[in-house]
Amino acid sequence: MRLTSYSDYSLRVLLYLALTNNEVTTIKEIAESYGISKNHLMKIVHHLVQAGYVESIRGRAGGLKLADIPENINIGDVVRETEDDFKIVECFDAQTNTCRISETCKLRHILNESLFAFLSVLDKYTLKDLMSQKNALKKSLNIGDESQ
Fold this sequence. Notes:
By secondary structure, the protein is mainly α. The chain is built from 6 helices and 2 strands, in the order H-H-H-E-E-H-H-H.
């Protein structure tokens, strides 16, 4: 299983916002800190706002902040929200499946079990767990650094 960059960047945005101690932050600041396209992050942030993970504040002093505390943001839930395709192999999609052995093959069930296990592990963690090295993360991203 490989997460899309969409999910990866979504988690990075949430982590960045959590590291700012709920201060209002801009997409530009996040994009520059990670070296990610601002345009790409705009779509991701819009989705995170719609999903209720991020609050968007309009106006001159506007920007972004977490909509909830980090310990209430579950990593498994975020991944489920941001990944659009958990069809690991062709036979996971009855509409497009052309595999001739899918009715008798055990691989589908094994892969489904592994996907469930993958998501179950993610369900054990929250955004707060990703912040265990908060100071080092902030330093890496130049958060709180006046030179930014």
